[in-house]
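Marked as duplicate of an earlier ticket. Keeping the data here for the record.
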Amino acid sequence: MTSAAEQRALAEGRAAEGGHPAAVVSGVRRALPPAPPVWPGAPTPLGARFRVGPDGVAGTNFALWAGGAEAVRLCLFDERGRETQAPLTELTHEIWHGFVPGVMPGQRYGYRVDGRWDPWTGARWNPAKLLLDPYARAVDGEFGLPPEVYGHVRDWPEQHVADTVRDDRDSAPHVPKGVVVHDDDDWSDDRRPKTPWADSVIYELHVRGFTKLHPGIPEELRGTYAGLAHPAAVEHLVKLGVTAVELLPVHQFAHEDHLLRRGLRNYWGYNSIGYFAPHAAYAASGTTGGQVGEFKRMVRALHTAGIEVILDVVYNHTAEAGELGPTLSLKGIDNRGYYRLQDDARRFADYTGCGNTLHVVQPQVLRLITDSLRYWVTEMGVDGFRFDLAAALARSMHDVDMLSPFLAVIAQDPVLRRVKLIAEPWDIGSGGYQVGAFPPLWTEWNDRYRNAVRDFWRHALPDVREMGYRLSGSSDLYAWGGRRPYASVNFVTAHDGFTLRDLVSYESKHNEANGENNRDGTDDNRAWNCGAEGETDDERVRALRRGQLRNLLTTLLLSTGVPMLVAGDELGRTQRGNNNAYCQDNEISWLDWSLLDDPAWRPLFDLTSRLIALRHRHPVLRRRAFFSGRHSADGLRDLAWFTSRGAEMTEGDWYAPAATLGMYLSGRDIPGRDERGAPVLDDSFLAVLHAGDRPTGFVLPGPPWAEGYEIVIDTSREDQAQAPGTVHRAGAEITVPARAVLLLRVD
């Protein structure tokens, strides 16, 4: 909340600027003193915080951790880019700080940090480089990468030693600036949905790509936070029925040099440089602080619709790359304090494939990350995080350690342990694959689920053992330490890889547009093109592909665990075979909303929303505890598996080649009680999955399992409205169409 003194200070600041409110909003100071006074201020909180100082004087407190630095200069910039420097002389526990009276919200700033230039020991201080405050809450301007922004001489003739030659050119004209932000929003009117994990359905989307072509969003709001908050965007999410959006990175990020040289840009955003600042290019309200309020309004709009906001966060590395990368922030503040270095301290340790790895064991790095996480929860309103390459964060000195400082700090933090935490449980280093190993507080992206489902539906599994585990919550991975089935985030596609439509339309990647001669992106797609590579006019192939999409979505939404959809998969979105569209900020990546009106693709959306609604209605489909498989008093199991002969599967059946699997889910054996303490009871269901290319007979299990069965979903049909209502008696042999899922309600 803004205090009365702060409100008066803001008003006086506007008056001093000639009474024009835009002077404060825009962040433009028409007159800055040549050398502003700097009072001692405070070492906490870190970053730039507007407040009322001694004697009721308004100003901003600046605090920067720079452990080995010899001097720190605060640099203030006016509307014409003219710089005024103010030395920070107070040093408390390696934090340089000072209070500058008269600095109002909207002021642009950066730092210059002095110290030794000794790359052989990891010291890379260079006061010629203007550095972004790691705690900046807004960033004005874009990162280009001309030679001036490198701490070393980038184009030195002998590249093998280029990183040791200091570049003394001023980078200030070429880099964005931090912006002083003041916000009096206390979130008292916000109502977080607080959706239980077991009830969650996650929808991974890109703020820009989801809204850029939406015809119902005003053009000036497309591609922005305000666009995602628009009723037209929210309406689609509500109709679909998802409970959370997982936003691809929205921390301020920079574009890589190799992309800029090819005329491309980093679209996905996995190249962070500002962990507190919403990415400015996604703001319709400008870049001088308005992006903060716009992001908050987006969160509010989604919360009002009952939708949580989860951020995909990249704390494992930054945009500064390795020793040959630019000097934008941490590298110039204290390279040795922020990054993991090799035994040869001139070189960066790289567990991420992006040139550097944050040294999360260091207290100041842990503080940066946890301060950032708490900020996004408490001040920006988000509900959880998905951690990119989370295994890199769990490394102690070298090895992945589930007792690492990072995981320990998160587990005891009173704010962070209450939000949704999702690990991408791997990195590229030795021992980095950690699926199933994260502690009970965490859920994980389960790529073994993805692989099994893809392989089953292209009929590439040697038997059905793996499929059985994945459909029923992956107990082989997560039934330890008190973990629950919702520890598994189930997905068939993600931003990284083929879209769902491309998964059934291409077998090989087609990434030529990325400019890397199709070398980038994985070759292990586990895809089947249904008989033709790419788009085709063959209606038989097209119908087969649509059927496979229905199979994949139905399997995902009937599986135990937390389903994750990728934006546009419910519409049949294609990236034309590009399985690594990280640099495609164009129609390849943006959602084509015309598909929603296409008679060939609209039924896919209708089926997806129907499946999600079915999941929400039936607790048997979103269990909070693993199946036991034991018989109950009435002779039923909570989970039973059947062969096409209608008999329960034996151990030998699990090892035999098969294309058909029957899964019985008992609604009478759901552990736990409802809010009033009553037993949770539901319908029972039989799901029959058949990946064979010919129809097959399937005998419906008789008593005690059922007296009869009613078909609820039949993925062989384009129009699902025709499927419900068909009833079969128990013990009857039905025909399961080729490559189809039947979901039957037990009578």
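See parent ticket for discussion. The longest strand covers residues 58-65.
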